[in-house]
Design goal:
Helices cover 50% and strands 16% of the residues. The chain is of the alpha/beta class. Helix 4 (95-104) crosses helix 6 (123-131). The structure holds D-glutamic acid.
C-alpha cells in the first residue's frame, strides 16, 4: 500500500510521523503546497480549488489512499472530493477521528485552536455535534502562527507573544484543547509553557488530530480489506 499525504505546509510532516509510528511497513509520501501556504488566510473556494488540484496530481501517481493531513483543507474540500470529484477513491481527512476521540473521552466542553479559515467554517462544531449535540465547542482562531512556523520560527519570542494573546481567550477551566491545525504540535512545548504562565496550572488534555487519525487508520484498513 502507498499513502500520499497532503498538507499546505510543514504540518504534514507531523501527521505523517504519527502514521509512520503506527505503520512502519507502509510506504508513505508527503506533498506540501508551500508555495500557496498559508491556506488559513484564504477563502473556502480557493482552499477547495487548490486542494482538488493537488489530489488530482497525487492520484495521477497511483496513490492507494490520499490523506488530507491539513485540517483546513479537510474542512473545505474533503466532503466535496469524496462525494463529487473522486467518487470511489480512498480520500480521507483528519477531522472526524478527533471528533470521535472527544466523544469517546467523555468531554462536555472543548476548545479548539485553529486557522482563521477553519474557525470561519464552523465545521468543527458541526463535526462534534453530529456525534453528540450536548458537547459545547468553542473555537479560537490563531491566524499568525502558521506563517511564523512556515518561516522556521518555532521557539522564538514571537511565538510566545502570539500564544499569550490567543490562549488568553480560553477559559482556564476547559477540559480539553484540540490542536486544530497540523502545524501546532510543532509548538506544543510553547503552548504548555504559556498556558502555565497564564493560568498557573498544567494545560488540560491536548488532542492532536494527526495522532487520532493514525490510531483510527488500522480499523479503516481492516474494513477495506488491506
Ligand atoms: N496545516 C493546516 C491545517 O492543519 C493549516 C496551515 C495553513 O494555514 O496553511 O489547518
Amino acid at each position: 500500500m502507498r499513502i500520499w499525504f497532503f498538507d499546505s505546509g510543514l504540518g504534514g510532516q507531523v501527521v505523517m510521523a504519527e502514521f509512520q509510528k503506527e505503520f512502519p511497513e507502509i510506504e508513505m509520501i508527503l506533498e506540501m503546497d508551500s508555495a500557496n501556504a498559508p491556506y488559513g488566510h484564504r477563502s473556502g473556494d480557493e482552499i477547495r480549488m487548490l486542494t482538488i488540484a493537488w489530489v488530482e496530481r497525487l492520484h495521477a501517481r497511483w496513490a492507494d489512499v490520499v490523506i488530507l493531513a491539513c485540517n483546513t483543507a479537510s474542512v473545505y474540500a474533503l466532503r466535496h472530493l469524496q462525494t463529487e470529484v473522486f467518487v470511489g477513491y480512498h480520500i480521507l481527512g483528519v477531522t472526524v477521528p478527533w471528533a470521535e476521540a472527544v466523544v469517546d473521552g467523555g468531554y462536555h466542553r472543548i476548545w479548539v485552536l485553529a486557522t482563521d479559515a477553519t474557525v470561519r467554517s464552523r465545521m468543527y462544531r458541526e463535526r462534534v455535534n453530529i456525534l453528540d449535540d450536548s458537547i459545547i465547542v468553542e473555537e479560537i482562531s490563531a491566524p499568525w502562527l502558521v506563517p511564523l512556523i512556515e518561516a522556521g520560527i518555532i521557539s522564538w519570542p514571537e511565538i510566545d507573544t502570539l500564544l499569550r494573546e490567543y490562549l488568553a481567550q480560553f477559559s482556564p477551566d476547559i477540559e480539553a484543547l484540540v490542536l486544530g491545525c497540523t502545524h501546532y504540535p510543532l509548538i506544543s512545548d510553547s503552548i504548555e509553557h504559556i498556558w502555565m504562565e497564564l493560568y498557573d496550572k498544567k494545560i488540560p488534555d491536548l488532542i492532536d488530530p494527526g495522532e487520532e487519525a493514525a490510531m483510527k487508520f488500522r480499523g479503516w484498513m481492516e474494513k477495506k480489506g488491506y
